[in-house]
C-alpha cells in the first residue's frame, strides 16, 4: 500500500472526528458555557492559576502530553503489522483519547481546577481517592524515570542536540518575561527562538566542537569514566543529574516564566517537525515495505497492542495534565474542546507519522522482518528506527542526513523534557495532597514535595540493574508504564461517566471506551504481572512484579468502589454550580 494514501485516510478521519464528534460532545454532552467563570480567573494567583490564550495553552497541553511515548509505542507496535497499529491510533484517538482528554479537562474546570485524583473523593469516596492518588503517584514516578532515561540516552547518541535543547531555556524565559511583563505577543518571539534553535542545530551537526559528547570527553566508549562506571554509564549518570536539577527548578517556577513559553516554542517545533515529515512523505512517496499483519509474532497482539500504544491512542497521563495544569489555565470553558480534544488529535497525528516513518524505512519486507524478528528486538530498536525513518523522510526536502537526525532528536528530547517537567510538577501536587490528607504539614511545602519527587525519580532511573547494566531503570519500567497508563485512563473515564450520570446526561460516550480499555488492560496486565514478571527464566523480575501487583490490586479495588457509585442515584457532593 502507498504510504501517502494511508496518511491521507488517517488525517481525514482525524478532521472528521474534531469537526463533528468533538462538537457533538461539547454541545450535547458537556454543554460548555462561554460565560462560566473558570478556575484560572476565580483563583488567579500568577503561579499555577493563570488565564491563558487558548493557542498558548494548547501549545503547553499538546507538548506536555506529546513526549517520546507517541513515537516509541507505535514504533514498537508495528512488530504486529502496520494495520492493527494504524487502526488503534486513528479510532482510539477519535473515540477514546479525544473524549478522555476533553472530559478530564471539563470535569476539572467545573470543580475548581482540581485533579482527577482529588475529585475521586467526591465521585467514589475517600478510600477510592487515596487508592487513586497512589496509582497516580506510581505512574508519574515511572514517567519521570522513563523519560529521563530516554533523554539521557538521546543526548549520548546524538550529542549535537544538546546545545540546541539547552539554549531553549533562556529563550523561553525571555519570551515569558516579554509576554507577561511587557504585554508582547508570544508568536513572533517564539518563532525567532525556534529559528535560533534550528540554526544552532545546523551548526552543531556540522561542527564537532559544538557537540557535547560526554563519552568522547571521557576517552571514548572504553574509557574509565567516573566512580569506576565506565564512560557510557558515567555520561548517563551526569545527564540524569543535570536533568533532575533542571526539572527541580523548572517545576517550581511560576508557569508563565518557563513552562508556558517553552511549551509554546515546542508547539511550533512540533508543527514544523510534523510539516517536515508529512511534506517529506509527499516528496519521497515511499512504499510500505512492512507487512500489514504478522501472523508469526512470538507474542500475540491481542491484548498487548492496546498497552504498547498508549500515548497516540489514549493515555491516562493526559488526564493528569488536563486536570492538573491545563484546567488551571483555561481562559474560557469553551476553549476546552480546542485544548483537550485537538490536543489528543495532534498526538494521534504524531503517532501516525511515527508508524509510517518506520514501515517505510526498510527497502524490503525481509529487512523489516530481520530488524523486527521478535518483540524484544522491536522494543529495543523502535526509537532508533523512527529517527532513521524520519531522517529518510526529511531527505525528501533536501535536508542533509546529519542535520535531519539532529533536528528529529531535538524534537523528541524537547517533548520528553516538557513531559518530564510537567510530570514532576504533578508529582509535587500529589505529594502535597497526601500531606494534607495524612496531616503531614512538611509534605505540603513546595520544595519538600519537589525534593521527594526528584530524588525518588533519580533513584528509580539509576539504581536498578538490567540488561543494559547501570541506569536501566527507565528501560525496565517501560512495559509497566503502558499498563499503568491505560488503567489510569480507564479509571478517569469511569470518573467522568459517574459525573455525567449524576448530571443526568448521556455517559455512553465514556463508558463504552472505558469498558473496552479496562478489559484489555487488565487482561494484559494479569498476563504480565503474574505469568511473566512473578517468575521468568528461573528468576523473578522483582521491580516490575511489585509495582505491577500493587497497581493491579488497587485498580480492582477502585473499579468495585466506582461501580457502586455509578449505580447509586445519590448526588456525590456536587454543588448547585457543578450541576448547571
Description:
The chain has 580 residues and is mostly helical. The protein is 72% helix and 0% strand. It contains 22 helices and no strands. The protein has helices spanning 3-29, 39-42, 54-65, 69-77, 82-109, 116-124, 126-157, 162-181, 187-206, 214-217, 231-252, 259-284, 301-308, 316-324, 335-359, 365-371, 375-394, 401-437, 446-462, 473-502, 508-533, 542-567. The protein is globular. The N and C termini lie far apart (50 Å).
Secondary structure elements and pairings:
Blueprint: H1 3-29, H2 39-42, H3 54-65, H4 69-77, H5 82-109, H6 116-124, H7 126-157, H8 162-181, H9 187-206, H10 214-217, H11 231-252, H12 259-284, H13 301-308, H14 316-324, H15 335-359, H16 365-371, H17 375-394, H18 401-437, H19 446-462, H20 473-502, H21 508-533, H22 542-567
Helix pairs in contact: 1-5, 1-15, 3-12, 3-15, 4-15, 4-17, 5-14, 5-15, 5-20, 5-21, 6-7, 6-20, 7-11, 7-18, 7-19, 7-20, 7-22, 8-9, 8-12, 9-12, 9-18, 11-18, 11-19, 12-17, 12-18, 13-21, 14-20, 15-17, 17-18, 18-19, 20-21, 20-22, 21-22
Pfam family, one: CstA
Subcellular location: Cell membrane
Protein name: Carbon starvation protein A
